[in-house]
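Q: what sequence does this backbone want?
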């Protein structure tokens, strides 16, 4: 994610940290499972639950035979590790239940089973036990004994007293020990220990130990641990899912809030930069992409490296000789991911723009549906929508095809990897280089490593698109608002009159070659109606939009009660202005909620007075629910004239000392127009009123009329004066008079 987006993660750092800790726990639990499985296979099944070649107890006679084939130093270590228990003694009573053979003979019991002691004694006892087993075989196999006599050039007697004979023959003992060690040394220490464990099992049986129960206990113990680890891993997964979802949704909520607040501060200049459709896409679809990416980053991007690296370490610890298999698999996976990323990234960059385009076409078609039907352009709009839709579909399909190909390729790679491990591992098992359980565990670790890369590959589907969305969100958030309040704004003096003065005001739209307004100078006095008229495109709406600073003047000054509008805060400025835009806007809700939009604390009397002045009483009373009548989105369920009257009523509820009505009478019939103007004269007689209109009849009785043409004032005065002195005004008035007479 971009650095500028990191600030949104700060309130959730604790949750992210907890998630990472849980991910470490989840990974460690999952990585331990193959180890325990290997123990069950190697020890629980193959070794009957016997962990090592150091018996926990031995019959006295077996210990004496074993000591015979150990060096004096090793004999001392072994005897120090065991305690001799004489049968028939009080001490023996504590052990007889566990070792029933103690009833008839003395035994040796291991003192300490710590890992350091076991590691030291394992090869010593394994060598001794295997040699004892070999000698016992010599006692029953005459052919083998004769071969040993010939091979070692010694003379071993037959019968059951061979150990007694060897006690007096140190050279023979040394020769037999060397022979046994030479036979097993090539197989490695692990194999010697495994072979010796079979001897230990026989010894346990002679001690009266239930070896089958020991095996079951071992399997159930580690099986129980595996079940416990699985439950803990599941708990960690649930925890990570909870915290990642809370973090992702929280960050998305904060981003949406900031975007909305930022857009609310936009002037009309900024709105000219971003289309409405694009802003909607950015605050919905783009943030959804980021939300999904954040969740996946926490759940997968953090987890995959932990699992992958841990899997490699565990696998190499089990079977270092098969390192090249993992290296080959990781190399192929990385290459595959990089190729997919290189191919798909350009498409991800374009997909959000295509969504913008689709939203724009859909929004225009739905908003202008009546116009489309009126001109029988349904087919044209369908084709336009299809074109945008097909473009988006084509790119989405390309991305999906790439991902669809990647998934089976990775699965095939994983299966090939398993086959190679089994092939190489089986040879290792046959050569006694690796145990079966270790091979199975290595295979599971290899699969975990593959899945780690598979998870990363899924992120390459989400991250590129999310990064594009991050850039699009950042474009909105980093916009420098052109119209800003001063750090220490001024305040209007009290009592506030609302006198507006334009002093040599000029304005040019961003990127336009010429000014839209040039050297505008006039004064609108409190308690007077100032009308602004002129041909289409002369700059009437632009002029009044400069007063509430919807646009900022390019040069010159606009003063209200002698204070530059740029020197006061926008909030204080807007509090003084009641505004009715050229395009009437109503919000979904009720008539009452739309009126209260101007002043939520307005009384019932104020609401009734405003709708009466706006000539809206009749149509509101015709509704069964009156003020509680629902208004559809955009005011679609009321007529243009009703919408204008409700917009005027809303402005009147505010009781502002300045009122701007931008072509707010265009949808009214002449009778309603006249009645509304008379009511306004009475209702807001003390206010400064600016009326933008195309109708001369609407402004005939205005205190001052400003005539605009191509952004310049070409006439100023009352109706009668302008009829004599202003050609443009006279032409407008005569053309409208002729139109009225002809109608």
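A:
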């Amino acid at each position: 994610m971009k650095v500028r987006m990191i600030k949104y993660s700060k309130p959730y750092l604790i949750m992210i940290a907890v998630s990472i800790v849980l991910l470490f726990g989840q990974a460690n639990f999952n990585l331990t499972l193959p180890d325990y499985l290997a123990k069950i296979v190697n020890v629980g099944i193959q070794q009957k639950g016997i962990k090592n070649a150091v018996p926990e107890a031995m019959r006295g006679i077996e210990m004496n035979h074993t000591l015979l084939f150990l060096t004096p130093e090793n004999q001392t270590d072994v005897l120090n590790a065991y305690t001799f228990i004489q049968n028939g003694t009080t001490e023996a009573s504590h052990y007889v239940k566990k070792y029933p053979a103690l009833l008839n003979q003395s035994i040796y019991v291991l003192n300490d089973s710590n890992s350091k002691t076991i590691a030291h004694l394992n090869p010593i006892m394994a060598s001794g036990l295997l040699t004892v087993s070999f000698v016992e075989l010599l006692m029953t196999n005459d052919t083998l004994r004769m071969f040993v006599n010939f091979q070692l050039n010694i003379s071993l007697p037959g019968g059951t007293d061979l150990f007694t004979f060897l006690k007096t023959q140190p050279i023979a003992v040394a020769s037999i020990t060397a022979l046994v060690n030479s036979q097993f040394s090539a197989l490695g220490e692990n194999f010697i220990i495994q072979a010796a464990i079979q001897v230990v099992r026989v010894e346990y049986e002679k001690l009266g130990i239930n070896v089958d129960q020991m095996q079951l206990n071992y399997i159930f113990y580690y099986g129980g641990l595996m079940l416990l680890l699985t439950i803990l891993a599941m708990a960690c997964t649930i925890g990570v899912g909870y915290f990642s979802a809370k973090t992702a949704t929280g960050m998305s909520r904060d981003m949406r809030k900031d975007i909305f607040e930022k857009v609310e501060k936009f002037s009309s200049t900024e709105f000219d930069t971003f289309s409405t459709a694009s802003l909607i896409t950015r605050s919905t679809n783009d943030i959804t992409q980021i939300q999904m990416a954040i969740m996946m980053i926490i759940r997968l991007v953090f987890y995959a490296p932990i699992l992958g690296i841990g899997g490699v370490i565990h696998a190499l610890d089990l079977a270092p000789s098969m390192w090249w298999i993992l290296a080959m698999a990781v190399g192929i996976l990385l290459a595959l991911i990089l190729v997919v990323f290189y191919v798909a990234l350009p498409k991800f960059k374009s997909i959000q723009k295509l969504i913008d385009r689709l939203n724009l076409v859909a929004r225009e078609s739905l908003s202008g549906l009546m116009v489309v039907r009126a001109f029988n352009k349904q087919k044209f709009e369908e084709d336009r929508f299809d074109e945008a839709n097909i473009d988006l579909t084509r790119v989405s399909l390309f991305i999906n095809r790439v991902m669809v190909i990647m998934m089976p390729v990775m699965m095939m790679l994983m299966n090939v990897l398993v086959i190679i491990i089994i092939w190489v591992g089986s040879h290792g098992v046959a050569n006694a280089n690796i145990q079966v359980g270790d091979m199975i565990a290595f295979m599971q670790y290899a699969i975990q490593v593959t899945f780690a890369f598979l998870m990363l590959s899924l992120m390459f589907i989400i991250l590129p698109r999310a990064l594009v969305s991050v850039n699009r969100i950042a474009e909105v958030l980093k916009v420098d608002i052109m119209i800003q309040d001063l750090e220490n704004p001024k305040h209007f003096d009290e009592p506030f009159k609302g006198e507006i003065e334009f002093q040599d005001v000029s304005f040019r739209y961003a990127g336009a070659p010429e000014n839209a307004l040039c050297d505008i100078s006039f004064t609108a006095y409190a308690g007077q109606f100032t009308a602004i008229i002129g041909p289409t495109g002369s700059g009437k709406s632009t002029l009044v939009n400069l007063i509430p600073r919807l646009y900022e003047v390019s040069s010159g000054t606009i003063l209200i009660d002698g204070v530059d509008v740029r020197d006061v805060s926008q909030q204080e400025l807007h509090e003084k202005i009641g505004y009715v835009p050229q395009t009437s806007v109503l919000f979904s809700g009720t008539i009452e909620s739309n009126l209260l939009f101007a002043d939520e604390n307005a009384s019932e009397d104020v609401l009734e007075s405003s709708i009466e002045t706006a000539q809206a009483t009749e149509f509101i009373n015709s509704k069964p629910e009156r003020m509680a009548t629902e208004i559809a989105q955009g005011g679609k369920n009321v007529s243009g004239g009703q919408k204008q009257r409700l917009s005027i009523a809303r402005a009147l509820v505010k009781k502002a000392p300045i009122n701007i009505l931008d072509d707010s009478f265009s949808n009214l019939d002449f009778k309603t127009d006249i009645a509304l103007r008379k009511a306004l004269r009475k209702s807001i007689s003390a206010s400064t009123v600016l009326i933008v209109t195309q109708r001369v009849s609407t402004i005939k009785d205005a205190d001052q009329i400003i005539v605009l043409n191509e952004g310049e004032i070409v006439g100023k005065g009352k109706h009668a004066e302008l009829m004599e002195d202003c050609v443009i005004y006279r032409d407008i008035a005569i053309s409208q008079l002729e139109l009225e007479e002809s109608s």
